[in-house]
Write a structure and sequence with these properties.
about 170 residues, alpha/beta, 5-stranded parallel beta sheet, 4 helices, 5 strands, DUF5131, Phage protein Gp37/Gp68
Amino acid sequence: MSDLFHDLVPDEHIDAVFRVIQQTPHHTYQILTKRAARMARYFKTRPAPTNAWLGVSVENRKQGVPRITHLRKVPAHIRFLSVEPLLEDVGELDLTNIHWVIVGGESGPKARPMKQEWADSVREQCEEQGVAFFFKQWGGWGVDGKKTGKSCKWPLIEWPNLGRNA
């Protein structure tokens, strides 16, 4: 696993990956990047296959939230945010032309806790703006503030509306 849009990945390699995606329309691919600006530049001159769902990581306000603006420029059939790991309150989100938001806490031995109100805020904004919401996990910390909990009170998954035009 790596970031397909990393600066060291040549466009020719990305082209080859998307050729395979186009040749396998019976599969749905989720491509997630932290290099949202490069992804937007790449797709400025290329179509995005309809079976490629394109998304950006939004872990915090400083680095994550600005990626959403770049994602909106991508002509994807489905655009999604991976708000994982949710490291702080990300504030007000403009979810215009975003189809799906995934939220989750950080996992691993050095995981930082996620506060329920941060996840609640994202979920409420999704509801208000008509965007599908998926709560993936609490990560290494539970809603009770204790390590290793993974329960949640929300339905785990809402799929994005595939019939909706991007």
